Amino acid sequence: TSSSASIGIEDLELAASHHVLDLGRLAEARGVDPAKYTRGIGLDEMGVVAADEDVVTLGASAAARLLERTGTEGLRTVLFATESGVDQSKSGAVIVHGLLGLPSSVRSVELKQACYAGAAAVQTAIGIVARRPQEKVLVIAADVARYGLGTSGEPTQGAGAVALLIAADPALLAIDPVSGVYSADVDDFWRPNDSTTALVNGRLSISAYKNALLGAWDDLQAQGGPGVDELEAVVYHQPFTKMAVKAQRFLDQHTGGRLDPEALEQGAVYDRRLGNTYTASLWAGLAALLDHREGLEGRRIGLFSYGSGSAGEMLTGTVQPGYARPERAAATRAALDARVPVTVEEYEELHERLLGSDEDVETPRVTTAPFRFAGVQEGARKYEATA
Ligand code: HMG
Questions:
Q1: What pTM does this model have?
Q2: Relative to the CA of 13, which of 56, 138, 206, 285 has its CA 20 to 30 Å away?
Q3: How many C-beta atoms surround the C-beta of residue 268 within 10 A?
Q4: 212 Cα to the center of ligand 1, angstroms
Q5: Where is the Hydroxymethylglutaryl-coenzyme A synthase N-terminal domain (predicted)?
Q6: For 306-318, how does the pLDDT look when each residue is reduced to its tens digit (9 = 90+)?
Q7: DSSP for 121-171?
Q8: CA distances for 86 relative to 80, 363, 364, angstroms
Q9: Active-site residue, from 18, 19, 97, 237
């Protein structure tokens, strides 16, 4: 029957910001031992958006490159997952839909539950495809993580987007119907409507992550999902890559298993250089694992999504034959390498520069990505292709 067809990720694509800040420079400016960032929290760099970039331009750029490969046949839904959206009412999906020139017969909507919204969008997409297997869904997870300057969250900022095409008989990863879920109302991290930066209780956020991980794991087991011995690796939400190390330790202690620590490093290659990309972080981790680990075909992996507030989900899926795409891996590495470094002063200036909606402003032309944020006109944000 149509509902038992395998469904999952047909293809994916990562987009990086125009700028990058080396965390060694930030450590120096903040009077911190650089090893605290590189080893203690496990981040080398963080993506910094240019004045003409935001989640819409990052998401549209990732989606454009993805759809160049896959085409748009069967595409009837765009789901945009973000917690740093550009409007309280209009979705990023509808703007991306316009920028990509998609037909009007494609529905467009945005989803929110902190970093978990990316996994929520994937599950929603799978439901749509299960109902009508000829349909495909474009999922975009895009975020710009912002904490206050000089706060302990500062080195865990970042920027990036991952676009995923969800389809039946997927070429990369067939996602299992059973997953483990967990929700609990916690004030570990949030962003009030009148704040441009997130507020966070760092210690509480780590224990809330742990509770969601173990709760989702137990639910997966209760639902009859695979045990730890059946998993080749687990990819985690990575607000900073050391969090994945902690998570794997929690899971090993909880299950009595021992997941492969090498897979952790392979799944952290992109997140170490992006910083926290919130909704996109887990999928950047998946991209990194697929790009750096051999012999995954036919193997089952776990994917743990955590969103503060809080929601967790442990998904599992089977990696498909031919999953290795050296060209895509090389393009991702090139996009990360091509980011233009900023000094701490330049980063601070960009961090504080936020456009209101009360005056018409044109943004400087900086990004070389396919799309840019052109500025504000009569209160509305305007976007355009760069070429
Ligand atoms: P902190 O207080 O600055 O750091 O905040 P610390 O003192 O806890 O040190 C961090 C680690 O560095 C420790 O390692 C130190 O030992 C080590 P650990 O004990 O944890 O293994 N360290 C060093 N290592 C080597 N050389 C040195 C050195 N000095 C110290 N010289 C914190 C860290 C992560 C709390 C902070 O950055 C923060 O608040 N970040 C934001 C919150 C966050 O990312 N939470 C993660 C879980 S919540 C989540 O994932 C959701 C989220 O993505 C949002 C969403 O869902 O939307 C955040």
A1: 0.98
A2: 206
A3: 26
A4: 18
A5: 6-169
A6: 999 999 999 999 9
A7: HHHHHHHHHHH-TT-EEEEEEEEEE---TTSTTGGG-EEEEEEEEEEES-S
A8: 12, 15, 18
A9: 237
Q: What is the DSSP letter of 13?
A: E
Ligand 1 within 6 A of CB of 33:
yes
Q: What is the pLDDT of residues 188-234, one digit of tens each?
A: 999 999 999 999 999 999 999 999 999 999 999 999 999 999 999 99
Q: What is the mean pLDDT of residues 12-40?
A: 98
User: Which residues are within 8 A (CB) of 262 and not within 5 positions of it... i.e. 6 or more apart?
Assistant: none
Residue 178 to residue 197: CA distance in whole angstroms: 35
Q: Kindly report, residue by residue over 315-365, the tens digit of the pLDDT.
A: 999 999 999 999 999 999 999 999 999 999 999 999 998 777 778 999 999
Mutate to test the pocket of ligand 1, among 83, 189, 304 (most ligand atoms within 8 A of CB): 189
Angle between helices 92-99 and 55-70 (to 10 degrees): 50
**What token pair was written down for 203?**
């210690």
Q: What is the pLDDT of residues 247-297, one digit of tens each?
A: 999 999 999 999 999 999 999 999 999 999 999 999 999 999 999 999 999
